[in-house]
# Entry
Amino acid sequence: MLTPSMPEPSRHNITFSLRAMSKADVMDVVGLIRDSYGDSYFYKQFYDPREIIHANQCGRLTSVVAVTGDNQLIGHMALLRTEDDPQIVEPVMAVVKTGFRNGGVLTGLAEYLYINRNPELFEEVKGIYIPPVTKHIFSQRQVYNHGFKDCGIWLGYLPDAQFKEINVSPLQRLTLVLTYMYLEQPGSIIIYPPPRHKEMIAKLFKNIGVPYVQCRLLPKDLQNYFHTESLLKVKVSNALGQAILKIIHYGPHVISEIHTKINELSQRNLSVIHLYLSLNNPLTGYLTPEFEKMGFFFAGIMPGTACNDTLILQYLNNTAVNYDKILLFSAMAQEILGYIIAKRNL
# Structure
């Protein structure tokens, strides 16, 4: 997740170089995180220098740092990969030292890591996603400048984080704008969206660069698409108060299985649950209304997850969201939020 540009005077005379992070840099990197976030950064494990080193060694992180001529470390950014979704990566821990912000450091790190796209860093990767926060618009503007496009909004997805030097109200969980960039544009895709969301889903795929979106009608032989049993993947973060539930295969009892999972996860006092559904499977178009009856609602799309071209539904567990406190920079993001609110109220 990207740290915003802080409201400091612009600096035009910063000279710095970029290189891979070394073990000797890691304490300075942790210091940069604390400089920007205090103790409120979402990925708590990265306050531990040993975790940053281990994640880089095993390939889960690829860290780059910015250093001045006198070898002062002034910036850091990393690409985060997960075993669950190896075809997508997320830039995280994008932080710049106080006194050096708004001087091109963050842009330089972004160019080094993902704008210039070193092929070695993106082998078998389909796309990059960034979910900037909506309690201010600074980081949203940055990702749009880098070419990312909106494809969803995640309400109340993270605990509140305090950005030093940005005066905002910390009264609710953070809502994020989901933005995406394909590494190589697909020629066309074939999907089976639920009829209720067909137009918005097609619009979002086109917004992120898919030129031809073929929305197919649901076939008559839907029973043939069920597996003998469901394959579900669940990832829970108690620290973040969230869970991600992915349906890899639909079994004949998938509706009752999801209902049971929701009850189990809700009893763990998680604030938000995401449900990932494959739009390449006709059963998604057929079963989405059943999931919405459980309290799920539209949250966006994401290509390249374990569910391939993915429809994301969201469930809020006793979590209130004040829409008036959500700040959105782009017209598309504003349209997505309006759509979500309208569909939730039906």
Summary: Residues 32 and 84 are 28 Å apart (CA to CA).
